[in-house]
Structure formats: C-alpha cells, structure tokens
Design goal:
0% strand, 2 domains, mainly alpha, 20 helices
C-alpha cells in the first residue's frame, strides 16, 4: 500500500470518527453544558486518554512498530508474532498494576492533576468518582494500541482507523439512552468510556485473527526483544507525547481558573483535533511503518522522498484548517455548540480558546510526521530532549499568558511550545541528513500558502456578508456555516490546482489507485 493510499484510508476513517465526535460533543454540550459536572467529566475523560496517548500510542508505538516491522521483514511472521505475544503479556501485567494503584490513590492523584478542584468539594468528588470509572479504559485501549501496531505493520490500516468510531458510538449511546436512567449525564458518559474500551479491544483482536496474526497470552518474560522495547519506550514517553504533556499541564492550571475553563478548553480542543486527527495522525500512522521498512532496507533515498511527501501532504491540508479556525472560530462554536445548557458566554470563551489553539495547528500535525523519522531509526532519545525543552517553554508561557488571557493563554502557550518542538526536530533532522527538502517540497509549500490566502480572503468577505444569519436562529446559523465551509473548501481546492500546489493528474491517479 502506498503512502497516499494509506493516508487516505486512515484519514477517511478518522474523518468519519471526527464527524461522529462532533455529534457526540454537540449532544454533550447541550445536555452537560460547561458547569461543575462537565469539568469533572472532562478531567475523568482526559486522564486515561493522556496516559494512552503518552505511553500506549506514543511511547509504545514508537518502540514496538519499528521492532515488529524489522522482525517481520528479516525473520518472518512467526518471529514477529512471538515478539508481539511477549510484548502483550508484559504490557498487560504492567497495566494491571498501574491501573490498580491509580484507582487506590485517585483522591490524592486528583489533588495533583486538578488542584483547583480541592476548593470545590462537588467538582472534586465528581471528578474522583468519574475517573475511577473511566480509568480502566487505559488498560483496554493500550492493548488496542498493540493490536493496532501489529495491523499497521501488516499494512492493514482500515480496522485500526475505524476503532475510534466505536468510542463515539458508545458515548452517543450513553448520553442519549443511558443518561436519563442514571443520576447524572456525567456518570453515564463515564460508564460509556469504560464500555468503549472493551468493545474496541474485542474489535481489533478479531481483526488481528482475521489477518492471520492472532495473539496468545504467554507467561510474562523480559526477553531481549522486550528489554529493547522498554529501552526505546522510556525516553519516547515524553518525546512522542509532548503535546499531551502540555495539554495536561493546561488542565492542572485551568483547574485554578474560574469554573468552566476546563470545559472551554475541551470543546475548543475537540475542534482543533479534527485536522490533527485526519491529517497528523493519519500521516504519522502511515509514515512510521513505511519509514521503518525503508530504513531497515537501507533505502535512504526512499526514506527522504517518503518524509518529504508526508510533510508536503500534511501542510497542504493543515494550513487552510488553521486559517479557517483563526477567521471563523466564533461562527463555528456558536453554530455547533450554543444550545441547551451551553450559553452565548460559554460559546465566546470557547471560540477564544480555539483561536489560540489554531496558531499552532500546523505544528501539531508536523510533530506527528517528524517524530516517526526518529523512531524509524530507533532514536527515541532525541525527541525526549526536544520535548523537555518544549514542556519548559509551555510552563513558562502558561504562567505568563494565563494572567492576561485566562484559559486562552493556556491554549496559546501550548501552540507556541508546539512550534518550538517542530523547529528543533526539523533542525536536528536536517543536520543529520535525515531530512533533505527537495525542490518540489519547497515549491508546494509556498503554493499551498498562496492557495490558503485566497481561501482566507473569501472567508473574511463571506463572514461579513453572513453576519446577520449567524445572529439569527439555529437553522440560519447552520445554513450560513455550510455555505462558509463549502465556499472555503472550493476556493482552496480551486486555487491549489491553479497555483499547482497539487496537480490534477496526481488527484486522478490517487483516486484511480483507491478504486
């Protein structure tokens, strides 16, 4: 499977998942709002997801996929399967211990991760109760990450990319059907998260079995390959998940701000995660197995070309998204979320955060592409050192900007720290000769920026023209937003073809390949 086909597969399923995620978030905003219960649930939802992205998707995949791909290429399927089974048993034992300790120490853990809740007994007690329900999700979804790494290494991306859809279905079911039967919507959502972990694990274990790579559960042993995996994982825990570290720091500091701040950041980040998921995660998922194989085969020219095309593709899709969020944040948030318990004031505060996050959107997606360039070469040390610098920058800027911009200051600090992270990774890769930008990459980026500017000018003009519609009823707002989205996409696509940021024959070739 080519890089572009793999990207299209992962991106397509991720887009479907994000669309369902929007339905989920719209329902949550209308029913749960942005009060104490919402803040408590979002902390309970973010904590297991933070550890998942940091250790499972981040550190574990950074170490597991290159080792599994190398064994698959050089030793065959049985050696690779044995390594995956050994990794599975050690991972499961480690997770059982970790989750158990977290459950026992949850009240003390909450004082560290949400210190601002200690002055609000209602929010604190709800956060502890909800997190105890959601935290086992970490165990199931970390095992999901292992099965996903196996399938991605086998170039079977569809089942893995479809997995987040199951989470959204479970949460939509919880907020619509289970919530009326429970004491609060937050409690129903917490149970929805826990159930989703079980469903996702069953789904991918079946997919692995169908791919001929069903895994047994042997006795946990620290074999040489598992030790090598752990060696690669430990530094990658921060390097691959630096954005997640910064987001958790935001939660800690946002808990010290007025009630609702965590909710504003959550809703804004949900919109921000759409291009990150569709573009960044898709590209990163597709590029790591490919780069790992090319590096294992000592094909340096192929590795350079693959990395250039991945950067080109991510920026081509991320640039217009960033400009759109900067220009129409208010219109997006008002149309999507302002109803029920989500007030106009909540919408304005959330739009402010989205604008700040959008500043770093291209950086967020580039991190997903540049990180695998290190991981494919089994270098997990460098990203962690760069990650430490980024975290320090984020903390310093958080403490400064939150004094003037409140919760939006936290989002802006995260965006600036992401750019610091990207610039350092890019510079190091260039110095090592692992990133050699070809003329096509430079030309395409400049042309994509030109096309994005054309789109921005059209959106700015249309935004003023449709101002009365956005101030009207819900139906008018939805129609106006649809017009903005379609016009913006058409303008960018047309300008991109005219400026040759993308060639029409490449689009036709990609579509033909997918058919």
């Amino acid at each position: 499977m080519t890089l572009f086909r793999a990207f299209a597969t992962v991106g397509g399923y991720t887009m479907l998942s994000r669309m369902l995620g929007f339905v989920r978030d719209i329902l949550i905003a209308g029913i749960l709002g942005a009060g104490a219960g919402a803040d408590a649930f979002f902390v309970a939802f973010k904590l297991p997801n933070f550890f998942r992205r940091l250790f499972a998707e981040g550190a574990f995949n950074a170490g597991f996929v290159p080792l599994f791909s190398d064994l698959l290429s050089k030793k065959g399927a049985e050696e690779a399967r044995a390594f995956a089974e050994q990794s599975l048993s050690v991972l499961l034992l480690t997770l059982l211990i970790f989750v158990t300790l977290a459950q026992i120490s949850m009240p003390w853990l909450m004082q560290i991760l949400a210190p601002g809740f200690t002055d609000d007994p209602v929010r604190f007690d709800l956060a502890v109760a909800f997190t105890r329900i959601t935290f086992p999700y970490l165990l199931f979804v970390s095992l999901v990450s292992l099965f996903g790494g196996v399938l991605n290494s086998l170039q079977r991306f569809a089942a893995v990319a479809a997995t987040p859809i199951l989470l959204n279905i479970c949460l939509i079911t919880a907020i619509t059907l289970a919530a009326p039967l429970m004491s609060s919507p937050g409690l129903a959502l917490a149970w929805g998260v826990a159930v989703a972990g079980v469903v996702q694990l069953i789904w991918l274990s079946i997919a692995c079995h169908k791919a001929g790579m069903g895994l047994r559960l042997p006795r946990p042993r620290l074999t040489p390959k598992v030790r090598e995996l752990l060696t690669l994982m430990l530094p990658a825990a921060l390097g691959a998940g630096v954005v997640q570290v910064n987001l958790v720091i935001d939660i800690i500091l946002a808990s010290l701000l007025p009630q609702g701040s965590i909710s504003f950041l959550f809703y804004a980040d949900r919109l921000n995660q759409l291009p990150i998921g569709v573009v960044g995660v898709a590209a990163g998922t597709a590029i790591l197995p490919l780069l790992s194989r090319l590096v294992a085969e000592n094909d340096q020219a192929g590795a350079h070309a693959a990395l250039n095309r991945a950067i080109e593709l991510t920026l081509f899709l991320a640039l217009p998204a960033a400009l759109a969020f900067l220009l129409v944040a208010d219109e997006l948030i008002v149309t999507l979320f302002q109803r029920g318990h989500f007030s106009p004031g909540d919408a304005q505060a959330t739009a402010f955060a989205l604008t700040a996050y959008a500043v770093g959107l291209p950086a967020y997606v580039l991190v997903k592409v540049l990180g695998p360039a290190f991981f494919a070469r089994r270098d997990t040390r460098t990203p962690v050192l760069v990650g430490i610098v980024s975290v320090v920058v984020n903390v310093i800027l958080n403490l400064i900007l939150m004094r003037y911009l409140a919760h939006a200051g936290l989002a802006l600090a995260t965006a600036i720290a992401a750019w610091v992270n990207v610039m350092l990774l890019w510079w190091i890769l260039c110095r090592r000769g692992d990133l050699v930008g070809d003329s096509r990459l430079i030309k395409r980026i400049v042309r994509a920026m030109g096309a994005a500017l054309v789109m921005a000018l059209l959106l700015w003009w249309l935004k003023g023209l449709l101002a009365s519609q956005f101030a009207g009823g819900e139906g008018q707002r939805v129609l106006a937003l649809i017009i903005l989205v379609i016009a913006g996409m058409a303008a960018y696509a047309g300008a991109a073809v005219l400026l040759q940021a993308v060639r029409w024959d490449e689009i036709k070739a990609l579509l033909a390949g997918r058919r």
